Every structure is written in structure tokens, then in C-alpha cells.
Amino acid sequence: MSVVLPTALLTDQYELTMVRAALAAGTADRRSVFELFPRRLPDGRRYGVVAGVGRALDAIERFRFDEEAIDFLRGRDVVDDATAEWLAGYRFSGDVWGYPEGEIYFPGSPLVVVEGGFAEAVLLETVLLSIYNHDCAIASAASRMTAVAEGRPCIEMGSRRTQERSAVAAARAAWVAGFTATSNLEAGRRWDIPTRGTAAHSFTLLHDSEADAFRAQLAALGEETTLLVDTYDVEQAIRTGVELTSGRLGAVRLDSGDLPVMARNVRALLDSLGATSTRIIVTSDLDEWNIAALASAPVDGYGVGTALVTGSGHPTSGFVYKLVARATDADPASPLVPVAKKSTDKISVGGRKHALRRLDADGVAEAEVIGVGAPPQGDANDRPLLVELVRGGEVVGAEPLDAARERHLRSRSELPLEALKMSRGEPAIETLWLEADGDAQANPFQH
Amino acid sequence: MSVVLPTALLTDQYELTMVRAALAAGTADRRSVFELFPRRLPDGRRYGVVAGVGRALDAIERFRFDEEAIDFLRGRDVVDDATAEWLAGYRFSGDVWGYPEGEIYFPGSPLVVVEGGFAEAVLLETVLLSIYNHDCAIASAASRMTAVAEGRPCIEMGSRRTQERSAVAAARAAWVAGFTATSNLEAGRRWDIPTRGTAAHSFTLLHDSEADAFRAQLAALGEETTLLVDTYDVEQAIRTGVELTSGRLGAVRLDSGDLPVMARNVRALLDSLGATSTRIIVTSDLDEWNIAALASAPVDGYGVGTALVTGSGHPTSGFVYKLVARATDADPASPLVPVAKKSTDKISVGGRKHALRRLDADGVAEAEVIGVGAPPQGDANDRPLLVELVRGGEVVGAEPLDAARERHLRSRSELPLEALKMSRGEPAIETLWLEADGDAQANPFQH
To answer: Which spans are transmembrane here (chains A, B) (predicted)?
Structure first.
């Protein structure tokens, strides 16, 4: 499974035709700055979570055009011979800055800043957007779930509800946002995430009786295992499980029914049978609101599937990748000129962005401060948000996934309390836009 | 890019622990029938579209546990030594029947029927669900779009809005459902789908003037290319494009604004400039309702992104994979016994399913007829829906992707007219459930 796939064709055709036309026109090497950013948060959300950074860095490193890819592009006349030759030697040689993985973001946050020649930088557009738009959507939903679960473990179980490779990325994003384990084995192997899983209803149905099925599972997985108790009659199943383990059963799983009521009944039954340490795991169509509704129920863990891998109503993040500045000729020393499309409904702001998180004296986040063309002046408490990810084509921002996970919990804990409300709301903090001279400008993304 | 990845870890852990427990209990080889089916259509939808069959067959063929996968599973104690040995020799040896790709489905349709030993069949659960849940969601949305586009070409452009490998699968599913091309290059290479793409706003912004950018694009891609005309002023851009091509410009693309109004103004302008053959392509946040709203506008093609790759509000299909029958011992000759979980909110029906589409004398679909335990009696016009996909472990149901695309258009054209309404509705035809003796039974999925 450790085969490394090239990523260069995970790309929209227009990037290749632009490279072709720019090479012919002599404009391909103009130094350029592209930025990946959201114009807004998903409707009603109060913050977003950065995820996919490590995957994006992998994708940049693997972005090479092999012979088969070039033959395909040439055969379809997507590129000409000169472009094919240029692609054969392609390797991103520029710089990338970005919000580190796990960080919080808001409307307009410059999540990724790519600087390089136009052609080399425009080619990364689709693959970066694909990774960020997906992974941040999952992490943003996951963070709301782990926040409202208030320390109870959340297990990612959504693989079956999303495309098979998205499933692996989703498990990774959920881990960044505080999930404690995944059912997805490839995510366990590839990203060293803890994995969980015991048995489905089919296992009970396979056997001649529920007791036979439980005996088989206990023999193989031990008394600490989790028995699925709602195939036939929940009460009977629990009695059987407790009896077979002399009260030492690890956990029971409920996958249907009115969970708050059932959890209370099941807890009372387990306690009455002496199985006071047996945990209750619930897994039926959970989302952040259902988790909130279970806060006072005697539940020991949540398994979350569909709502997680579909971003709980927002399966994509709405990021765009826009040229914001470029040189007027191919001289690497030429100054950058801000550029922006004129549009009233699809805004972008010319000029390279810088960003910091403004914190008050108690360390609570107050504002996202975005400097256009120059880094904004920060106070002592302020935290710069952009870190170096790629320098001269070399990845310098790789880090263990646990670092992202810890950063997320830390950054989320800085937010004002209302950020964690489940109700629809505005972004949890305001965004201040500053000109290069430090003067404030109107928020371009506020309607 | 033609590296073939094994698929065996694209799996939930519980499938492996069930195999482990069943091997130890001596129940792993009980002949079993699993079915993949929807309990309902996404809310308000009138039909669903089968896609992903070819990908699923590939995944079954590549479902092998290599040494690295087995080391991982053994290292985490997901499996024991006996199970590890069994996995090393794993190769699905059973039979698979299913709805062919492109076919229409309804609530309860048995899209896939897998027969084999319990252990070998349960292992396919997650990867089959991942593929079908994703690909059918995309194809079902895509079919509504191509239906309402009424012959105008639809181009899939959503790669950037979904995970990078989902993007490839989405382009494939859209093609099955009648899209005419994709922007995704890997989908072009892997599945031989026509690809499209010319230039983004960044290409115009890169150059010193819009005219310079257009000249560069026309020089590289020819006069038949599509110019993006809304970077600055649409009218001026069109005048420039027409002038540079002496009226022979292939197409203009509008990516913002009030499209029905703009399309009319742009058509009038093009015609007044003598560019009567220049086509108008629109690409801004289209979905099936926006496409319907453009039906009377002078538009020549639609580029669809976000709404397509997110299933237009329904990013997953809600399929489940359930054990419906199994033998009482490991003897391959033992009869199958129907099994089903007892549940009021998550229904499945015991017994192997068969299915046909009932057509009236005019060839219009009237009903989905599902036989439980035996094939239903069909009339002369009725069409059996299940085809053989895998026989004794060998894939026998592979077909060119174009066959699926043609089948979809054919099957959709059989539906009653109201099936193609964009408004929320009930499934376009009813489903009849028949017992093995031919007696009708109540529809188990109707509440």
C-alpha cells in the first residue's frame, strides 16, 4: 500500500493550456503570488479548521509528469512539444507559506500563499484546492463534534459513506480535530491513527444464536471488546453479554433507537447486573446536535459516520486559488504588482497577504488581522499565522500529525466561548484588514 | 499513473475482527448472501442512478493483503496469526450479481448481491459501500442536470471542490449520467473521457492587458478556443475577442453575474458584431435548478462544479450492505436461511432478492418488481435488472464505460415524464415486493 502515486494529473486541463499559452507568449516565468482562501465560512458556522497541510506538501513533492502523463497530454493536444518538454522537467521551485495544520481560520484568511513563476504556481491550483476544500470541510465539522462531546471519545466511522480514498483523508482530518480513533484501516496504516472496530449485525446473524455470536467474539477479542446489542432484543443481549463475561464486559454498542432514553435504560440495567464498568458506545446517525442532545445521557463514546465525512451539511469549504500579484516581466528582481479581477459577486483582493491572530490580555482571540502587501503590526500577545511550508521547492514545514492535533485543541481553546455554540452564527471573531501603511480598510468580504 | 493500488485496507476494522472471530469459531465459511441496497432515495428525489460498478469490479480484483498490510494488522493485534495466514491467501472466490452501471434504481433495489463464504464476503463491505455511495450520489445528481439541460452539453468542472481522488471518480460518474466532458485530466487518462479547459482569470491578470492575454491564448489554442470574458468588462472583452479572431471566435465563457440576463446581452452583442457562430458557455455555481432557469436563455453549454461533486445536496447515497441469508454450517450444499435484524428504524429484509423493471405496452416503466427468495414472474415487456458481475471469483461483468452511458440514457428515457421534474417528489415508480410463491407483500421501506 505504500506505492507513491504522482499527482500531476489531478488537475484541471486549463492549468496545462495556460502553461502552454504562457510559455509561447514569454509570460510563463513572471514571478507570481497565488493565494488560497475562503471568501466566507459555510453558512452559519463560527470558525473553520485548517487540515490537509501535510497531504498538500506530499502532493507538491509528488507533482511530476511521468512519460505516460505527458504522452496522454500530447496525444490529446492539451500541450505542444515545447510544453511537454517543460513538463518533463517540472518540479515546483518556489516558496509556500501557510496556516499550519490544525489552526483556526475565518473569512479571508490567507490559508496558503504560493510564490513562484506563473506556470509552476498555477499548476498547483486544482490539487491544492481539492485537498484543502475536502480536508478542511471534514475537520471543521469534526471540531464542532469533539467540542460538544466535551472530552468523551469520538470515533470516526464514516468510511463507507464517502469515496474510498476520501475516507482515508477524512479519518486523518477528524484526528486533527480531536477524534480519538477511526475505523479506517488504511488511515491507521498510513497516518498511524488508532483504529477501532469489533463486529456488525451480520456477525450476530451469521451464528445460530446471539449467545453463540457473543461467545465467538469474546473468545477472539477478549472481554474488553464491545458487543453490539441491538440485533434482536437489547435487554436480552445485555444480559447475555454480562453473563458470558461475569460482569467484566468492556462495552456495549447501540446502533438504533431513541438513544438518550436507551442509554439511560441500558446504564441502569448494566448497573443492576453488576457491570458498572461496562461502557456504552452509541453510533446511530450522530452529528454535533445529536451529540449535544446526549450530553446528559450516560454515554461513554460516540461513533460518527455520515455527518462527519459529509462535513455535516457542508461537504466542501469554498476555497479559491487566486493570482493576487505578479511581476511585469520575467526578471526575478522585478517588483510585484497587485492584481484582482473586477467583480461584485466573486471578490478577491490584490496584493500579498500576511496574517496574525490578535489576542487580548487573557489570551482570548479578538480578531484576525490581515495585512495587505506588508505584515501587520502586532501587539505582544498577537500570534503570527503564516509559517514557511516550502522554501525554494523544498518542503520545510512537514511535522508529525500529532503536532497538528495539539495545535487545533490549543487554537480552539483561545476562541471566545460563543465560538463553540452549535446554533448558526457569525464568525466568532472579526477580521481587520490593514493596508501596507497600517491604515484600516473595509472588510472586502463583508456584504 | 497506472500504478495499481491494493484495496484491502480501504476497510473498516470490524470486518477483520469478524473474520478473526468467525475463523476461530468455525463459522467463517458458512455460505452467505450479502446485499447492497438503499432503504430510501435522498429526500425528494424521484430516481437514483447506478454508477461505480466498473470501479467496484476493479476493487474486488485488487482486494489482496500484501505483506505490509498484514504486518500492520498483526502489529496492531487486529488479527491473530491464523487470520493473518488466511488473509495472505485471500482472493474473493464467490459470485456477485448486480444492477448494471447506468441503470436506474429505487428504494429497496438490490443493487449488488454478493454470495460466498461469510468471511470472504464480509470483507468487501466497506469498499463496495464507499464506491457505490459516492459514485451513485454523483451520477444521480448529474442525471438530473443532463435531463434538464435538454441536449445542451454539460461539462464536469468540480475537481477542485472535492477530494482529489473523489474528483476522478466524480468525473467518471458524471460521464455515465450524460455529461459530455470533464476538466479532470486523470479522468481523461484513466477512463478515456473527453477533457476540456482553456484559461482562468489568472491568465488574463498575468498579462499587461486583456488583449495581450487573449492574443496569447488564441496563438496557442486557436480561434476555436473559449475566452473567459468577465475579468474586467464583459462587453469590452467580447469586442476584443471578436476583433482578434475576425468574428471566428469559438466561444466565450461567463463565470459570474446574473447569467440569464447576461447571456441574452452577450448573444445580442456577438450577433451585432457578426460573431453569430460564437458559442456562450456559462459556469457560475450551476445546479439543476439554475440550469432549468437558463433553458430559454441563449446558452450553448454548462460547466458544473460544486453542485455536481457534492451530489447537489445529497453527497452520499445511504446504501447499506446487509447479510440477508446464510447456511447453518460450512457445507457448501447446505440450504440458505433468510436472516434479518429486528429493528423498526433500520429495516432489512431477509432472503435473497431478484428484480425486474415492469414496463407497460408503450415501454414506459411502471414498477420495480422485487422477488424475495425467487425471481418474480415477468411479463413480456419486463426487463430483468440483475446481471452477473463476478462468477467464482472471476470478473465477468466488465464493460466499456460508454455502454453504461448509453444504458443510462436508455433507462432514463423509459421513466414516466414526471420522473424528470426538478421539484421534490416521490419515487417515480412504485416498488412491488413478491414472496417466493408470487404473493405480494407490503413494501417494507414504506412508512
So the answer is: none
- The domain tally of chain A equals 2
Kindly tell me if the per-residue pLDDT of B4 is higher than 60.
no
Q: What is the mean pLDDT of chain B?
A: 96
B73 φ, ψ (degrees, to nearest 5)? -65, -40
Residue of A30, A164, A256 best to disrupt the B interface, most CBs of B under 10 A: A164
Do residues B239 and B380 both lie within one domain?
no
φ/ψ of A359, rounded to 5, equals -115, 145
Question: Could you tell me the CATH number of the domain that includes residue B416?
Answer: 3.20.140.10
Q: Is residue B188 part of a domain?
A: yes
Interface of A with B in 321-360 (CB under 8 A): 321-323, 326, 328, 339-343, 345-346
Contacts of B196 in chain A (CB under 8 A): 13
Q: Residue B444's pLDDT is what?
A: 87
Please determine, for residue A372, whether its predicted confidence score (pLDDT) is greater than 60: yes
Residue B105 near residue B38 (C-beta atoms within 8 A)? yes
Beta bridge partners of A367: A358, A430
DSSP state of B28: T
Task: Kindly state whether residue A84 falls inside one of the protein's structural domains.
Answer: yes
pLDDT over threshold 60, residue A227: yes
Closest CA–CA distance from residue B123 to any residue of chain A (Å): 12
Same domain flag for A258 and A360? no
Nearest-CA residue of chain B relative to A316? B161
CA–CA distance, B6 with A190 (Å, rounded to integer): 13
Of the three residues A266, A281, A313, the one that is the final residue of a domain is A313
Residues of chain B positioned with their CB less than 8 A from the CB of A326: 205-206
For residue A378, the distance in angstroms to the closest alpha carbon of chain B comes to 32
- Clarify whether residues A77 and A186 are in a common domain: no
Q: How far apart are the C-alpha atoms of A128 and A130, rounded to whole Å?
A: 5
Same domain, B320 and B305: no
How high is the pLDDT of residue B447?
A: 55
Tell me which chain B residues have a C-beta less than 8 angstroms from the C-beta of A214.
Answer: none
**A120-178 pLDDT, tens per residue?**
999 999 999 999 999 999 999 999 999 999 999 999 999 999 999 999 999 999 999 99
- Alpha-carbon distance A131 to nearest alpha carbon in chain B (angstroms): 6
Q: Is the pLDDT of residue B356 over 70?
A: yes
Same domain for B129 and B158: no
Chain B positions in Cβ-Cβ contact with residue A129 (cut-off 8 Å): 160-161
Beta bridge partners of B432: B369
| Structural domain for A199, as ranges | 150-313
Q: Please report the residues numbered 175 through 214 in chain A whose beta carbons come closer than 8 angstroms to any beta carbon of chain B.
A: 183-186, 188-189, 195-203, 205-208, 212
Nearest to B304 by CA among B149, B101, B103: B149
Q: Give the pairing type, strands A48-49 and A336-338.
A: unpaired
What is the ipTM for the molecules in this complex?
0.97
Question: Distance (Å, rounded) from C-alpha B207 to C-alpha A423?
Answer: 46
